[in-house]
Amino acid sequence: MPTTVFTIANQKGGVGKTTTAVNLAAGLAQRKIHTLLIDLDPQANATSSLGIEKQEGRSLYAALRGEGDALSLITPTAYEHLALIPSEEDLAAAEIELAQMDNYLMKLRGVLEPVVRSGGYRAVIIDCPPALGMLSMNSLAAADFLLITLQCEYMALEGLGQILRNVERLKSAGINPTLELGGIVMTMFDIRTSLSRQVVDEVKKHMPDKIFTSVIPRTVRLSEAPSFGKTIFAYDPTSPGTAAYRSLAGEVITRFGL
What we know:
Blueprint: E1 4-9, H1 17-30, E2 35-39, H2 45-49, H3 61-64, E3 75-76, E4 82-85, H4 91-98, H5 107-118, E5 123-127, H6 134-142, E6 145-151, H7 156-172, E7 180-187, H8 194-206, H9 220-224, H10 232-235, H11 240-256
């Protein structure tokens, strides 16, 4: 079966992007779908969320410079069917250096080609930095589908327009003409506030076919899990956050034929 590449992006920080990348990947792996999570954020939060130490030379930095390959960076995790390409601080330099290279938006696509061709993974999930810089734009150029995490808060919709305009630019420039918005994941839903419901309703009204039914709640357990180097499935199997990400994984499997 072909490999599907998803990128999870949002130019804002603190919107549940890494939490979603890690726990969606874990949810797919629980369903026996071979999944590769790629940490493209120099802060390496996805890496530490899986209990893996940052190690010098283990990020995609050298590969993006043409000095190595992605396949050799794939690292097993504590979870069956889930592997990781970790990150570390040196990726921050790639933001600057990529801009000075030829075909600078296509570097990640080239680096990931052997991984996709290998057929070892049904799903590849890329976790981006919280900015629409070189690394995030490279991930959009390399992906089949963009998944956007949108927090259930005021002003969330403003950022949505910005990232969608960037998708259209990449498509019209011929950099990734087949890139599609795969879906919008509503995060940090607070059942006690009418604002959370209003934001979800607003997105449903504008993009009814793109919003996922599974809504990720704002819970302490989801915030705590990364500090223990665990997915929410391992940290608290009975929490509402676990149920939400299990449900989201099911939706992703159905929507994209995984």
